[in-house]
Amino acid sequence: MTHPSLLALLIAYLLGSLSGSLILGRLRGVDIRTRGSGNAGGTNAFRTLGWRFALGVVVIDLGKGALAAWIGWRLGGYGALSPQALALACTLLAAIGHTWPVFFGFRGGKGAGTLVGGLLLAWPLAALPLVLVWLLLLTTTGYVGLATICAALALIPADWLLPGGSGARSMFAWLAAGFIVFTHRGNLQRLFAGSEHRFERARLLARLFTGKS
User: Fold this and answer.
1) Sign of the CA dihedral 63, 69, 72, 76?
2) CB 184, CB 115: distance < 8 Å
């Protein structure tokens, strides 16, 4: 791996470590990790501090993923990694930085928003089915964590079905899916225990088909 590739990966991790909820929370004198689920992500930000705060968090987390992918794309192609391969690797490193941020004691969020931001640049064709699966699961079950896990797992069949496949893309699909399952393992445990929080207001499709308001 060449020096430009290593530099891109390092920058991606550092960008990922710039947690939107923790940066904005400091401006308000709040550490979101002490609120709600304790997760430094958009969902907990929405539940505990409202949609305006959560919107700012999502913009930052999506943006840093996209920026990391862009840097990877620009620096890729100089060595063994193609521009897309390095962009996908940087996307994953940014998500890792978001989850274990060096600037915030290695306690961050779960990385889903950052992954989506990177996909918008590094693999845009996969972003649409991922978002559609997430919306379908969220509006039927109301479980944000389950919707996120299923959306990440959808990357694997997306890699098989979408054009332009490569070994790097397949590896990313499996690693990203596994990463999201790992960071959401607590959600899975609560689902099996019957104690997972359900976002009832999001169950629009469920109410449509059952006729319940």
Assistant:
1) negative
2) no
Six-digit token string for 81: 């990694």
Question: What does the pLDDT read at residue 158?
Answer: 94
pLDDT in tens, 101-122: 999 999 999 999 999 999 999 9
Please report, to the nearest 10 degrees, the dihedral formed by the alpha carbons of residues 199, 130, 35, 142 taken in order.
10
Look at the block and give the residue holding tokens 């989850």.
99
CA separation for the pair 81, 145 (Å, rounded)? 33
Any idea what DSSP says for residue 103?
A: G
Residue 184 has φ and ψ, to the nearest 5°, of -105, 20
- Per the CB < 8 A criterion, the answer to whether 109 and 99 are in contact is yes
Half-sphere exposure of 39 (CA within 13 A, CB side): 20
The DSSP secondary-structure symbol of 106 reads T
Whether the model pTM is above 0.85? yes
